[in-house]
Specification:
single chain, 488 residues, alpha+beta, FAD/NAD(P)-binding domain, D-Amino Acid Oxidase, Chain A, domain 2, Arc Repressor Mutant, subunit A, 3 domains, eight-stranded mixed sheet, five-stranded antiparallel sheet, globular
């Protein structure tokens, strides 16, 4: 089987300059930034594939830079990170669009909150931010409730497909020499002779001069495993509704309510691929692995969304899901450890972590440099990855040309998202060998039928391409087996 991480020693033994623990959006931005220097970097990910943690299930928003005061590190990194996405889009292959963000005031007393956000945005140097009258806010978003009395508009806000962003960053880092290990659950870090020996649950080990803890929900466990700071990551679940591309309620811009003390509220989001997200909730829980959804919360989501966009309809709902955010304190915790040597903490990266992530990469690079890591620029570093052809984006003529070269381009596996067999095969050959890995890489199973028509075909392709038996096919790795009998 051809592996996505084919440049690696399968025994996961090697000496590196930097080990980044966690391959979500923070970890992969750090790794990609370090790939431009003449050092050896490795990324250690506990899941079966990259982007399987918090990064796969969030709102997919590039924030507008007005929700937080710039006294907070997360606000400063949000503002810096947002400005970096246009260049990243030119270099990498991921969907991104600056559609703008509005915050709707549905009552006169909410205009005071809008004015506060406006002043904060001005202090943060947010480009083009507007305090809007009723007429202006309705002009910007005609589908908004007629109860709206005004609000805020930040034209620089945008939408992104977060898992495609992670995949593109990883591909760029891999191209420039970074090594990746998946199914690598870090259980122990031991510092001896100026190096960390980093052990996994299955007995593998790597050695690195510096370690970066970007382990998301499990950053507290990793910190303790290295004898570093003792803190507790709190899990905060956010449930969402996903609506079909054909819904008539799709807004042109991301629509926020006025924020509360614990949350930015439940949003209506026109995703970059054409669907609509409504949510999330914000509920603390003890179980970091509980991604269940509830009827009560989903009713709350729909009711909240309809106060802003009244045309939202349950008939357009095609899926519900939950993501979990790693909460620590009011701010991000990104700093050099005061207890463990050569160890950097990147913890509590909740909203606006996706927006801030490119700036987090820069920030951690600077921390490592100040700790003594020598960073000489790598000659020939190439920031670009190729744009992959996708059936749904091609003209008939371009698609015909691909079919002439490879007939698999003419076999549509996922009807809802128009994903071809050739795209599924490429995903599997790159090492995305679970149903979720294929889904996030290609969008197959993300349409209206949610895999009802294509799951069987995808399983057969995975079996054919990898040689895996039917009882080894999983949804997202580990024990998530799919079948209890062989496919006919």
């Amino acid at each position: 089987m051809k592996r996505y991480l084919e440049n690696l020693n399968p025994d996961a033994q090697g000496d590196y300059d930097v080990a980044v623990i966690g391959c979500g959006v923070s970890g992969v931005n750090i790794a990609r930034r370090l790939s431009s220097y003449k050092i050896k970097t490795v990324v250690l990910e506990k899941a079966a594939d990259i982007s399987f943690g918090t990064s796969k299930a969030n709102s997919g928003i590039i924030h507008g830079g007005f929700h937080h005061n710039k006294k907070y590190l997360k606000a400063r990194l949000e503002i810096q990170g947002s400005l970096m996405f246009d260049q990243l889009k030119r270099e990498l292959d991921f969907p991104f669009r600056r559609c703008g963000i509005i915050v709707a005031a549905l009552h006169e007393d909410e205009m005071k909150a809008a004015e506060h956000l406006y002043r904060q945005g001005v202090e943060n140097s947010v480009i083009g931010i507007e305090l809007c009258s009723r007429e202006r806010i309705m002009e910007l978003e005609p589908k908004l409730s007629h109860d709206a009395v005004g609000g805020l508009y930040a034209p620089g806000g945008g939408i992104i497909e977060p898992y495609r962003f992670v995949f593109a960053l990883a591909e760029s880092a891999l191209k420039n020499g970074v090594h990746f290990f998946t199914d690598y659950q870090v259980v122990k870090g031991r510092y001896e002779g100026g190096r960390w020996a980093i052990n996994s649950a299955d007995g593998r080990s790597v050695s690195a001069r510096y370690a970066v803890n970007a382990a998301g929900l499990y950053a507290d466990d990793v910190s303790r495993a290295f004898g570093a700071e003792d803190f507790s990551i709190r899990a905060r679940k956010g449930e969402y509704f996903l609506m079909d591309k054909m819904t008539q309620a799709r807004p042109e811009r991301v629509v926020f309510p006025m924020p509360t003390a614990v949350s930015k509220g439940m949003l209506v989001i026109p995703t970059v691929e054409g669907t609509v997200l409504v949510g999330p909730t914000a509920d603390a829980q003890d179980d970091k692995a509980d991604f269940s959804t509830s009827t009560e919360k989903l009713e709350q989501i729909l009711d909240s969304g309809k106060t802003m966009i009244p045309s939202l309809s349950r008939n357009d709902v095609i899926a519900s899901f939950a993501g979990i955010r790693p909460c620590l304190e009011e701010d991000f915790y990104i700093d050099v450890s005061q207890k463990a040597p050569a160890f950097v903490q990147v913890a509590g990266i909740q909203s606006p972590g996706l927006t801030a992530s490119p700036a987090i990469g820069e920030y951690v690079k600077d921390l490592l440099k100040n700790m003594g890591l020598e960073l000489a620029e790598k000659p020939g570093w190439d920031p670009f990855v190729r744009d992959r052809p996708r059936s749904r984006e091609l003209s008939p003529y371009a698609l015909d040309a691909l079919i002439a070269e490879d007939p698999a381009w003419g076999n549509v596996v996922c009807r809802c998202e128009n994903v071809s067999e050739a795209e599924i095969v490429e995903a599997v050959r790159l090492g995305h060998c679970s149903l979720d890995g294929v889904k996030y890489f290609t969008r197959a199973q993300m349409g209206r039928c949610q895999g009802g028509f294509c799951t069987y075909k995808i399983i057969k392709i995975i079996m054919r391409e990898t040689g895996l038996s039917w009882d080894k096919i999983t949804k997202h790795g580990g024990p998530s087996r799919l079948l209890d009998r062989e496919l006919s």
